[in-house]
Amino acid sequence: MKLQSKPRCAWCAGVPELIAYHDTEWGVPEHDDQRLFEKICLEVFQCGLSWRTVLTKRENFRAAFCDFDFYQVADYGPSEVQRLLANSGLIRHRGKIQAVIHNAARAQEMVLEHGSLAAFIWQYQPDPLTLPPPQSVTLSAESIALSRDLKRRGWKFVGPTTMFALMQAMGLMNDHEVGCFRRSLIPDAGQLPL
């Protein structure tokens, strides 16, 4: 029961799947394009649902979307959409499935233009000195700008609140609550590695 005794962010409140995710992934700076694309896709599926619902289906999503390799996903056509809609292990929402496939092609374009998806996303990292208290807001000027820029480039289901959640999860900011044991363990987000 030592796991339960550590002070954590309130959002994972005693739910085993959420605790494991919180303790090992959430807020850790991520620069891998495939993992960033995965998180964007999972945030797409989460729209209007609980994160726990998405998290419990994550392995099914990974299998269905080639571990979120956006080069493979971009080639999905109507038959793959139908296959995904028939997969009971997924959130079967046609618009979200089509958005993931569509966004995979946009991710490829971004790599060509910026060198990586990470290089593009990390340019929206907030200045730590301007951040509000942890978990006190659900969007920021940076998440609004990131959303606007992605939409301008044709991305779908990437609203400012969704992008704020992405920024929290991928460590563009350390948004762990002040009393959370993970706050001091999260490395400085820093800049992209050379």
Molecular structure report:
- This protein is mostly helical and 194 residues long.
- The protein has one domain (30-169): Endonuclease III, domain 1 (Orthogonal Bundle).
- The protein is built from eleven helices and no strands.
- The longest helix has 21 residues, at 94-114.
- Residues 190-194 have low confidence and may be disordered.
What are the SSEs and their pairings?
Blueprint: H1 2-5, H2 16-24, H3 33-46, H4 51-56, H5 58-64, H6 70-73, H7 78-85, H8 94-114, H9 117-122, H10 141-152, H11 160-169
Helix pairs in contact: 3-8, 3-11, 10-11
Keywords: Metal-binding, Zinc
InterPro entries: Adenine_glyco, DNA-3mA_glycosylase, DNA_glycosylase
Protein name: DNA-3-methyladenine glycosylase I
Give me some keywords for this one.
Endonuclease III, domain 1, 194 residues, globular, DNA_glycosylase, zinc, disordered C terminus, mainly alpha, DNA-3-methyladenine glycosylase I
